[in-house]
Structure prediction request, 141 residues.
Amino acid sequence: MTKHLTRTTALACILAALSTSAMAQDLTITFSGLAHQSGTLKLVAYDSPAGFIQHQAWRVAQQQVSNANPELTLRGVEPGQYSFMVYQDLNNDGRLNRNRFGMPLEPYGFSNNARPTGAPQFGQLAVRITQPNQQLEITMR
Prediction:
């Protein structure tokens, strides 16, 4: 009886793990409003407010800009709430260049196409990923 119960529990755990990974999906992010067709889009994604506050990214990705409609596909995205920030590294120096007042000199954008007046907050940028092969558009400015 105990042996049967142990096998059943193990099988249930394996099936649960497989069904969780089966819910993972692709998320395609497109970028509009690019003034330059050069450089690299650098994306940082957060999956929780705590990770956002502590600058612990859930995912980091980049894509060379070679045409007017670049896109990035993130694979294995579990349903949930995520916040995205992106900038276009025009000179490929690996950082968002700013002026002496701290304002960005290179194009940038946020999920929800948010326009925060100060430092962005997770909730302002948060989007819910619920559908398989969902798409998200971020407008650069």
Summary: The longest strand covers residues 80-89. The chain is about 20% helix and 35% strand. The beta strands are 25-32, 40-46, 59-64, 71-77, 80-89, 108-110, 127-129, 134-139.
